[in-house]
Amino acid sequence: MEETAASAEEMSATSQDIETAVQSIAQKSQEGATQAGGDK
After folding, report:
1. What is residue 5's three-state secondary structure?
2. Residue 14 burial by CB count (10 A; 0-12/13-18/19+): exposed, middle or buried?
3. pLDDT of 14-23, one tens digit each?
4. Is the pTM of this model over 0.90?
5. In this structure, what DSSP letter does residue 1 have?
6. What is the largest CA-CA distance in the chain?
């Protein structure tokens, strides 16, 4: 049971990291698009 719990915790942390990274990338690309093409 301990291994399963640890794996679930790690997976949760990993998907949280991925979600954070995706949001960060999306924000940066949105900012880049705004700077490049002005407000749309």
Report:
1. helix
2. exposed
3. 999 999 999 9
4. no
5. -
6. 54
Distance separating alpha carbons of residues 20 and 17, to the nearest angstrom: 5
First to last CA, the chain: 52
Q: Which residues contact 33 (CB under 8 A, 6 or more apart)?
A: 40
Structure tokens at 28: 């940066």
Angle made by CA atoms 40, 34, 30, in degrees to the nearest 5: 105
| Residue found by looking up tokens 């049971």 in the block | 1
Q: What is the DSSP string of 1-40?
A: -HHHHHHHHHHHHHHHHHHHHHHHHHHHHHHHHHHHH---
